[in-house]
Amino acid sequence: MPSDSSTLFVVGSVAAVSFIGAFGVSVGLARRKSPEAFSRNAVQGQVNPARLAMRALGFGTVLAVVGVSGLVLSIKYALGIKNASEFGDRIHKMVPDDARISNKKKTD
C-alpha cells in the first residue's frame, strides 16, 4: 500500500490536471457556441457583455461543482473512506497534535 504522502500527491496531481482540462473544455465550448465573442475583429458593441458574463458564470458554477465533487470522491477513494466520521479519524491521525487548533478556551 502506498504511503499517505504519495497518495496525496497523486490525488493533488489528478485534481490539478482535471481543473486545467476543464478550463480548456469550457473555453472551447464557449468559443464554439459564440465565436463572435472571441473574434479579433469584434467591436465592443457587438457582443452583449451581460449575456457573456452570465454564460461564464454558468460554466464556472458547473465546473466548480463538478471539480469539487471529483476531488472529494477521489480523496474518498484514495484513502478508502466510507463516511465523514472515518474521514475525521483519518485526518486526526495524519495531522500532528501541534498543528491542530483547539476548540477549548484557555483560562489564564
Helix-strand blueprint:
Layout: H1 4-33, H2 49-79, H3 84-94
Helix pairs in contact: 1-2
Note down, in words, how this protein is organized.
- Keywords: Membrane, Mitochondrion, Mitochondrion inner membrane, Transmembrane, Transmembrane helix.
- The protein starts with a helix and ends in a 14-residue tail after the last helix.
- 67% of the residues lie in helices and 0% in strands.
- The longest helix has 31 residues, at 49-79.
- It is elongated and about 60 Å long.
- It has 108 residues and is mainly α.
- The protein has helices at 4-33, 49-79, 84-94.
- Helix 1 runs antiparallel to helix 2.
- The chain has one domain (4-97).
- The chain has three helices and no strands.
Key structural traits:
single chain; 108 residues; mainly alpha; 3 helices; elongated
Would you summarize the structure shown here?
The chain is mostly helical and 108 residues long. The chain has helices at residues 4-33, 49-79, 84-94.
Mean pLDDT: 75
Instruction: List SSEs in N-to-C order.
Output: HHH
Strand content: under 5%
- What's the overall geometry? elongated
Give the uncertain stretches in residue-range form: none
Compute the CA-based radius of gyration: 21 Å
Count of helical stretches:
3
Distance between the termini: 46 Å
How many domains make up the 3D coordinates? Answer: 1
How many individual β-strands? 0
Class based on secondary structure composition and strand pairing: mainly alpha
Main beta sheet: none
Helix fraction by DSSP (H/I, runs of at least 4):
55-70%
Family: Belongs to the TMEM242 family.
Transmembrane segments: 6-30, 56-79
Membrane topology: Multi-pass membrane protein
Organism: Amphimedon queenslandica
